[in-house]
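Lab channel / #folding
Pinned by the channel admin:
"Please post every new chain as: sequence first, then the structure tokens as a reply. Keep commentary short and put observations after the output so the thread stays searchable."

First post following the new format, from NK:
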Amino acid sequence: MNLIVKLGLFFTVFIVVLVAVLVPVILHFRQKNDEAVLPPMTTNTGVTFSSSTTSRTTTNNTISSGTTATINPCVSGNLRWNTTGITVLDSSQISSVKGIYIDGNNALYVTDADVVWKLLNNATNATIVAGIRGSVGWDSTQLNFPQDVYIDKYGNMYVVDTLNYRVQKFVNGSTTGITIAGITGSQGSAANQFAVPLYFTFDSTDTYFYIIDLSNNNVMQYLTNSTTGDDGTRVAGGYGADNTKTSLSGGNGIHYLPLINPDLFITTNRGHTVMRWTPGASSGVFVAGVPGVAGSNSTLLNQPRGIRIDKYLNMFVVDFSNHRVQMFCANNPTGITIAGTGIAGNSAMQLNTPRVIAFDTYMNMYIGDAGNNRVQKFLKY
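Reply from TO:
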């Protein structure tokens, strides 16, 4: 019996050791075989994630991580903008909001009566980057009622110097301007003159800019690298101020995204409309408002001013005399109020004769609230 017990114990120990050695080996080869047969794992979920450093692209929905908003605000269910504004600049610093622009670093530029202000992202105090405060003039360091401002990809600043009838270029931080369009102090209708230049927009390469000349009822195209105020080319309007598709009745705001669509989008202040106009064409098309009819319902406008379009061709229109901002979804003439109440006021939810509009890289919306001498920020959410 003792021998049998000893043999049993021996075989038991042998089996335990054998199992301990062989099982890991078998599992190892099984895992390797599975890896050879199964396809690699994928994290593709059918969604695009955008960021400043990495991205994954697929074909279905689009989600923004905060650097570039890519969600279409007109798709049902998408959130829009907070209707309570945040004042980022007010009358304690600026005296008259004319135009605004936001660069790729989310710095805000504002044209005032005789200067251009710059407010860095998340800063509270703006600094003057062009013009001399309290000193309206026509020399190369002065401005006179500037209406609009733009910063190109090289850091050059362009300013519509309205009552000097010119466009000034400030090269890479310089405070001395170079006249690239118009003739200083000379108002007129020649190809190298302006009557009342207002707002402008640039092509995708910063080679050309397109500028509204209010009193000449046209849009002119100029080269950005001019140094002598060369002749421009008329690309829209110029056939009077009638409320017809061949005329610009008080052209005011303008925007252009040629990589998305070949048309200029233009507001007509006196015509109460938005027009799409292919540069060089003899006529445009009305896409919002009713020509010559001012009103406050969802299909009408009252002296519209600033305009921006997004990559979906939705339009964002500053409805000046209705004290609101209207969003028109692509190919839809019915507006949706996204800022302002329609009644002039100075509360955080109201606007008073707003003029201009801009968006930062997060698609937060900025409105030049002229009647309240402030710039309001409406958060995208």
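NK: Residues 23-69 have pLDDT under 50 and may be disordered.
TO: also worth noting, The helical segments are 2-37.
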